[in-house]
Structure formats: structure tokens, C-alpha cells
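On clarity, I found the account of how folds are encoded harder to follow than it need be. For illustration, here is how one protein appears when written out as sequence plus C-alpha cells.
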Amino acid sequence: MHDHLYSDRELFQLISEGDESAFRQLFYTYGPQFQPLVIHLTKTTAVTEDIIQETFLRVWMSRDKLPGIENPRSWMLRILFHQSFSYLRHQAVRHKAMDAMGADPDMHSATEEAVAFTATLRLIGEAVHKLPPQAKRIYLLSREKGLKIPEIAEELSLSPSTVKNSLVRSLHAIRKHLEGAGYIIPFWLLWLFYGQ
């Protein structure tokens, strides 16, 4: 962690250079501030963490754009609003479909969740299968064997940053695959939990 606090623009500059401690500082500064806003927008606490994580995932994935952003907080809020409204649109479509079928959402929720879970696992498997060979190997060592980034780097004779970037790209590809199939699935921000 940095010894002192940076301005948002300084943090964006550091993050654009791949500085993870600057990213953590940004996350721990704004994550709690964004929570009440997401709850207000979505009217539910259940998806708050997922929406905030997705917002910061997009910050990290847009590192190359960060130095040119004049007002980081406003830029992050736009992403946060977009994620919140995407969730609301998804929910509206789901409820409309349930109404059209004359289904009772409560009665079918357990079955629906089981089917959704199975379908999600299948889709994740498909997405992982499509990854390039090295990315797939890194992902499987991380997710299935539970290895940390330094352990994967040592095993594959790669730098930790190469492993970390591969995991981020793989996570992004998996999310895109799931979203393409209509699934909004929560994933932890990998770089907050690996290599610490």
C-alpha cells in the first residue's frame, strides 16, 4: 500500500502503469461510497457487491484510457450507473418472461436456480475451452488447483505480471461469453485476492 493518499488523477495514472496498490487504494476508497448508490438504484443489496466489482473490473480493463480522464469519480459513476441499469433491464426481461408464462417466481425459484447454476457451469466450461492454450492452463491452475499467482508463475516459468494479466483477460473473456448467453454472473476481482 502506498504511504500516502494520492489524488484520483494520480491514482488513475499509477493504475494505468499497472500499480496494484494504487488500484486497491481506489477500490477501498470508492467501493464503500458506491454501495448506498447501487442499493438506491437497484432497490436490492443482493447485487450491490457484483455491480461494484464489475465497475472496478472495467476500470482495470480500461487502464490505457485512464491518464486522459479529467474527472475519475464522474467517469466511474457513469460505469456504475451503466452496470446498475443493465441489471435492472435484465430483471425486467426476466419478470416479463415469467409473467408471460403465468409462472409464480417464488414457486419456481429453486428449480430455476438449479437449472441456471448447471447452465452457468456449462457456459464457463465452454468459455475456458475457447481460451488460448497457455491462458487455459493458467486459469485451470488458478481455479481448479487453487494456486496463487506466484506459484503459477514459478510452475510455468513466467513472470507474475504475465500470469496476472492472463487471468484478468480470461475472466473478461468468460464474462463476455456468459453475458452473450444472457447470464450476469458475479466474479471476484481476481487481482484483489491473488498474490497478496
User: Anything to note?
Assistant: The CA atoms of residues 94 and 100 lie 10 Å apart. The chain has nine helices and no strands. The chain has two domains: 1-103, 106-196.
